[in-house]
Amino acid sequence: MLATPIYIICSPSPQVGKTLLARLVSEYLLLKNGTALSFDVNLKEPSLLDYLPNITETADVIDTYGKMQLMDPLIIHDRVAKVIDLGFHAFDEFFKMCEEIGFMKEAARCRVAPIILFVAGADRISFRGYEMLRRQIPAASLVTVHNEFVLCGGLPEAMDTERVLRIPALPLFLKRYIDRLSFSFTGYLRNEKDWSSELHQWIRRNYTMFRDLESNVMLRGPYRSRATNIESLRRTRVT
Question: Looking at the predicted structure, is the pLDDT value of residue 163 above 50?
Fold first, then answer.
């Protein structure tokens, strides 16, 4: 692992599918790496902690102590991928803190790769939040997420950039099915024998997107030179 990825899943707007995305990413990382650590920064239930209690810790950015408790384990290249489910109430304070402490530069120095997954909404708050992140976050680390269940008519033009993850909408009965606290995406893949089912294909498609996204960030970020050197070394050995 060239760098330790941190997926920061965020939106200043409520009810855009943030926790659903955090669940998907967390379960994908568990399947891929065998381990993951998630942080739940939310006020309402059900939250990520309810779905994945074994790998999730609660956190807040209300005071200095809470901020330190959240940030300290993030700037460590320990090869344990992390997920932050950032509640809409904490959006402004979290990124204000990141700018004040120079989080992105410190993360790169420590070989940590933040990946900001901005879940788009259609309201003005979402537009303002997105523009703020564009000024603060390097383009290689900022990804817009289009949850088609929430934004049926497509992304606003200003957010429909090169780096977009599109989460297809599921039928309402399947959406209710996966919203159950006992539901596991990876468990479904392992137990459902019909690979052609809509939900099976939906989960596999999303997992594949996360895999490609992580590879792309590592190659486009400050870790690229090391990745190139490693690949050159491998080719030399093969030759």
Answer: yes
